[in-house]
Predict the 3D structure of the following.
Amino acid sequence: MMNFDNSPSNNETSENSLNFTYNFSSKEIKNLALFLRKNQNQIPPSLESFARQVELFIYSSMSVDEVEKFYS
């Protein structure tokens, strides 16, 4: 599950943030992580923090070996 709230983050300046909650399935989050990794050169700066959080979530839910196989 990923939660987004309307609290200011370190990356925000004068932008208003919005609240968005979505419960990702394991398959969805893995596919999203792979998609973001394969397209990392095309991720706009405004989505870099989101992409990083997805990657950190994957890293925290898998062993090092699993992550290496996953991204291979």
Notes: The radius of gyration is 13 Å. The longest strand covers residues 2-4. The helical segments are 26-38, 48-61, 64-70.
